[in-house]
Amino acid sequence: MFVFGNLLYAIATIISYILTIANWLIIIRALLSWVNPDPYNPIVQFLYRTTEPMLAPFRRIIPIYNTGLDLSPIFALLVIWFLQLFAVKTLFNIASRMG
Q1: Domain residue spans in the chain?
Q2: Is 34 helix (H, G, I), strand (E, B) or coil?
Q3: What is the pLDDT of residue 69?
Q4: How far apart are the first and last CA of the chain?
Q5: d(Cα 56, Cα 53) in Å, to the nearest integer?
Q6: Which of 29-38, 55-64, 80-89 has the highest mean pLDDT?
Q7: Residue 48 burial (10 A CB sphere; 0-12, 13-18, 19+)
Q8: What percent of the chain has pLDDT over 70?
Q9: Is 38 exposed, middle or buried (0-12, 13-18, 19+ CB in 10 A)?
């Protein structure tokens, strides 16, 4: 049973790393939106391509024109933090009980 526990531990670690990277990408994109970045810059294009799929569902729920402010990064970060606190910690706890 310890093999399955180690597998869950590895999966939880990888999910945690992915969520941390997504967290930082969204924060960097939100900060860049304050300074009007060059849209042809490859780094800016990479940030937009990687974060837009995470932000688009929240933009459909809370349109920008209602508030004049894009709140989608805040809601995306809240979901990421929830997943880190609930799902990842749950996987770590299950893995520790199996090992």
Answers
A1: 2-98
A2: coil
A3: 83
A4: 7
A5: 6
A6: 80-89
A7: middle
A8: 98
A9: exposed
